[in-house]
């Protein structure tokens, strides 16, 4: 069995109420599955950026982009191959950390360059940011201690910076 192949879309939209609902309902109506979704205002407060990760084995990227461009508020869509992008995600989790195990858990947090954000008598809350696979690895390593809560933000993405001349991204804009 091969691992799923993901494609990341960065969708620039007008920052208006209801835009995210229209995008998510488009996915629901068409039966497209979203692997990850993150949305926030961009550097220009008139626009928001929606980062959508999809499984390309289940859905055609071309079909999704065509459907997204039918929405009035979509300005630009950028498709990112994993090799073209810097992807990051944030993980918050609370793990059981009694006196016998607390030191080992703190060592793991430090190895993954995480931060302890809250301390309780029997638990630690931890924040780790990084590539999605790295967060998976961290969660797998602390799972035996007892994860009581876990939340991830979803992926955000930027293009890798140019190392040489030449086109690197496929940017699709609406036809005028």
List the helices and strands and how they pair.
Layout lengths: L5 E9 L4 H12 L3 E8 L5 E9 L5 H9 L4 E7 L4 E12 L5 H10 L3 E5 L3 E8 L1 H11 L4 E6 L3 E4 L10 E4 L3
Antiparallel strand pairs: 1-3, 1-4, 2-3, 4-10, 5-7, 5-8, 5-9, 6-7
Describe the protein's architecture and organization.
By secondary structure, this protein is of the alpha+beta class. It folds into 2 domains: 6-80, ACT domain (Alpha-Beta Plaits, 2-Layer Sandwich); 86-156, 2-Layer Sandwich (Alpha-Beta Plaits). Helix content is 24%, strand content 41%. The chain contains 4 helices and 10 strands. It has helices at 19-30, 61-69, 102-111, 132-142; strands at residues 6-14, 34-41, 47-55, 74-80, 85-96, 115-119, 123-130, 147-152, 156-159, 170-173. A 5-stranded antiparallel β-sheet has the order 2-3-1-4-10, covered by helices on one side. Strand 2 and strand 3 (47-55) form a beta hairpin. The longest helix has 12 residues, at 19-30. The model has no long low-confidence stretch (mean pLDDT 90).
């Amino acid at each position: 069995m091969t691992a799923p192949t993901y494609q990341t879309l960065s969708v620039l939209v007008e920052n208006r109420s209801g835009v995210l609902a229209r995008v998510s309902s488009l996915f629901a109506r068409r039966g497209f599955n979203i692997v990850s979704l993150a949305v926030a205002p961009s550097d220009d407060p008139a626009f928001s950026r929606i980062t959508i990760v999809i499984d390309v084995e289940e859905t055609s990227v071309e079909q999704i982009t065509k459907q997204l461009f039918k929405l009035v508020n979509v300005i630009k869509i950028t498709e990112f191959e994993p090799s073209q992008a810097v992807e990051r995600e944030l993980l918050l989790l609370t793990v059981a950390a009694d006196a016998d195990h607390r030191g080992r858990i703190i060592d793991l947090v430090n190895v993954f360059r995480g931060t302890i954000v809250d301390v309780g008598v029997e638990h630690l809350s931890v924040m780790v940011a990084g590539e999605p696979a790295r967060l998976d690895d961290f969660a797998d390593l602390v799972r035996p201690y007892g994860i009581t809560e876990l939340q991830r933000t979803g992926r955000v993405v930027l293009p890798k910076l140019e190392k040489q001349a030449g086109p690197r991204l496929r940017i699709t804009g609406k036809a005028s």
